[in-house]
What does this fold into?
Amino acid sequence: MSCMEYLKALDLKIFHFINAGFINEIFDFLASLPENGLVIVIVLGSFALIFGRNPRNRLPGFVLLSGYSVGGWGVELIKEFFHRLRPCVALPDARVLFVKTNLSFPSGHAFAAFMAAVYLSSVFGKKTGIWFLTAAALVGLSRIYCGVHYPADVISGAVLGSAFGYLLVLVEIRIALSVAQKDDKA
It folds into this structure.
């Protein structure tokens, strides 16, 4: 068995373990929440930062919203390149809570959740960041549990999202330095 065959088999075994190993009504309800809720949380959270009372949160709000938009576009390009079918479409034995027919690799939800978690951890600090990262991990697990992603999709989305979140931190620093330099010259 080649290394790639082994990784595909492992991906499938982990998928089945998570997808069918913890079945109960509470998990069914909770795992379905991120399907539409993640977009709402990120967009509304961005607007809350932009239009909130603390003017120091405006730049992070703009960076988060811009990062979500640009990152989502990038994930869709990657999905088209790899063209991996979702388990709910490709596997007849997958336990499916809802059907998605677009492509699977990488997970856009995992990307967005980890991008936001890493970026917001830098904005609000490590203690709050632990909660953001825990929530992001639960979003990733929910995608497997619902039958719409393989573990490799979620892991790749998490890694790419985390890296992109860190890039957003650097972008914010660069913007803040540019603004400070302009203020010093004025």
